[in-house]
Every structure is written in structure tokens, then in C-alpha cells.
Amino acid sequence: MPLTHGTQERAGFLDMQAEVGITKHPGGYPATDELLALCHIDTASRVLNVGCGIGVASTYLARKFGCRVVAIDRSPQMVSWSQQRAWEEGVAGHIDLVVADLLAMPFASDQFDIVFCESVLNFVGDKPRAIDECKRVTVPGGYVGINEMFWLSEAISAFEGQVSAILGTQQALLTKSGWQALWEASGLAEETAHIHPVDVSREVRDRIHWVGWRWIVRAWGRALRLYGTKPAVRNAIKEQFRFPIDVMSNMGYGVFVGRKPLSTF
Ligand SMILES: C[S@@+](CC[C@H](N)C(=O)[O-])C[C@H]1O[C@@H](n2cnc3c(N)ncnc32)[C@H](O)[C@@H]1O
Asked: How far away, in angstroms, is 181 Cα from ligand 1 center?
């Protein structure tokens, strides 16, 4: 939903993130390290980062492993933040950025050794189709890795409707067992699922570390300007802060990794 100057409109969560220039996933760098270690990343890996947001993981991998990364996001604004970050971090030559929807990626099948996404599938209604598309572009024997948040307990939170509205899709957050079932049905081999509780204070520290102080200060400047000038952003921020903090105690995240079978008979 575009940001508007009306008084009743509410900006979508991702539109707001794109305007401000901040994205994040649960677990910060440690979760990304865990995910990519399970995917056996190394210097020679051809990696696809799906739903790259402002490009923190892409630039991190290019710096740490020196590998080539292709990164896609549906939002041109996110892709442009990623481009800026890649230049600022001196790794623009290692990263190819593409505006694309993960449900129909503009790549031939069997291209990448590792296809990963973090905090992206919760914004997609058709999660099995999204996983299939990630699998399609992975080489046989390559890895698909996903990091997503979910409800820990089976009793769906009373805030499910509010969460779905913020994330912009029905079937946004699944339960832990919903994710496990989805993963088992993925057709991937050697599936692994590492489950973690969400710790709010750690998430705040991780977010600062993930985005970086210099970037955070600039993003806060943009956020304050938007808050002052765009009612749609003001309404969205107020709605998100109406969340009781204990909702988070019912949330966890999972690092899910599986291997595309070598052959499909
Ligand atoms: C919460 S952000 C996470 C970004 C990044 N992975 C990170 O960890 O910082 C979710 C991202 O997924 C992107 N996204 C959501 N749905 C998508 C889709 N169908 N195709 C491609 N990107 C999508 C959004 O534009 C946004 O940049």
C-alpha cells in the first residue's frame, strides 16, 4: 500500500520499513551464521538471498566469505537500499541485485548452491509455493535455508488477526508445529529445524548490531520526518506499539534447512 497524506490510511509494515530503510529478522547475525553454517557455505558457494531487504545479510556474506551473492526483493526501494549498503561496504562487485517476486523468480532451474530467506515467508500467503520456488532454483544437492518467526504454543494468540493485518497476509504466522509440518512436506532431504524462543531485549540489541549505528541514526531521522509529515505512517506506528509485550513470550523462531534431492524419481 503506498503511503498517502490521508488521515485514516495506515501504511503497510513493509512499505514503512522500505521508506525508513530498516529490515531485520529474528536472531540477527547469530541466526544468519547458524543458517548458513547448516547450508555449508564457503567461498565458492553461489548464493541467492531471497527478500534481501536493506541488504545486511548479502553484504555480510560477501565480506565474510568473499562469495558471489544474488539478492532479490519485490520492493525496488529495498533493492536500492541494498545497492547503497553494498557500495558503502565495498562489496558492490560481489552482489547482483534484482527486483523480483519470490513466487516467480527470473532464474532458470538448478542455479544456486544455497537459497535462503529470513523473515520473508511470513509475508507470503502461499508458503508451500514459495518453498517450491526456492527449491526449483537450487542445484540438486544444494541447500534451502529459512528463518521465520512463529507462535510457540498451539493456542493461537488472540492477537493473530492484528499480526496478520500488520504483516499484510492471512496465514501470516504459523504455529511451531505448522512450520515443522510445512518443512517435512517440502520434499527436501536431511531437513533440520533449530527452534529458539524470542527474547525481546536480545532482539533489540541484535537489531542495532544488525543494522549498524550509522545506518540506524540515518533511519531514525527519516522515521521522525515521516512521522511528522505522513498520517499513514503515524497510524501504522501507533498500531504496532499497541502490542502488549507479553505477546512476544508466545513467539519463537526456527532456522530450517534442507537439501534438494540429487534426483527425483
Ligand atoms: C522483514 S523484511 C526482512 C528482510 C531481510 N531478509 C532481513 O533479514 O533484513 C521482509 C522482506 O521481504 C520482502 N518480500 C516480501 N514478500 C516478498 C515477495 N513475495 N517476493 C520478494 N520479496 C518479498 C520485503 O520487500 C522485505 O524486504
From this structure: 23
